[in-house]
Amino acid sequence: MTRVSDRTRLIALLGALCLFLSTVEFMIPKPLPFMRLGLANLPVLVGLSLLTVPEILILVALKVAGQGLVNGTLFSYIFLFSAAGSLASGLVMLLVHRAGGRYFSLVGISILGALSSNLVQLLLSRLMVFGDNVRLIAPPFLAVGTATAVVLGLVAERFLASSEWIVLVRKEL
């Protein structure tokens, strides 16, 4: 029997947090079905400073699969929207954190991730569902995404700055 590494456990824990936050978010009433707060991105933001690039990509994949299971959209076009948006967001956040992390706070990284996710989803919406009418949903969609990204970035920054657990995890990794 092989021993599970601390890094694998950390990915599993952050993935479970993504699933938990997806479940919480699923229970919050939405004005429009596709408008989500993005709570499940909080563990990804925290993971940026703890995990390697491949590990973050695994975490994003776990997040997408978990959301698809929780929301019951695993085999639908909505899952495609979620996967494309999450992949775009994850890649942008990784790139900005790794290349320009000293110039961007987690709030800025969160906003850029949300904007990339929302823009990819709006593009898919235009191509697959709404056509040119996507311009009608774009402003509130981008506004909600940006506002929640600010809040999530602030929460992630506060957590990383004050959590004793983070200090212990960094020592063990």
Number of domains: 1
- Rg, alpha carbons: 16 Å
N-to-C order of helices and strands? HHHHHHH
Any idea what the CATH architecture is?
Orthogonal Bundle
| Mean pLDDT value | 90
**Secondary structure tally: strands:** 0
Strand content is under 5%
CATH topology: Arp2/3 complex 21 kDa subunit ARPC3
Brief characterization of the structure:
With 173 residues, the chain is an all-alpha fold. Helix content is 77%, strand content 0%. The two termini are 22 Å apart.
Mind explaining what this structure looks like?
The structure is a single chain. The protein is mostly helical and 173 residues long. It has a single domain, classed as Arp2/3 complex 21 kDa subunit ARPC3 (Orthogonal Bundle), CATH 1.10.1760. It contains seven helices and no strands. It has helices spanning 6-27, 42-47, 53-71, 77-100, 106-130, 134-162, 164-172. Helix 1 packs parallel to helix 3 (53-71) and helix 4 packs antiparallel against helix 5. The two termini are 22 Å apart.
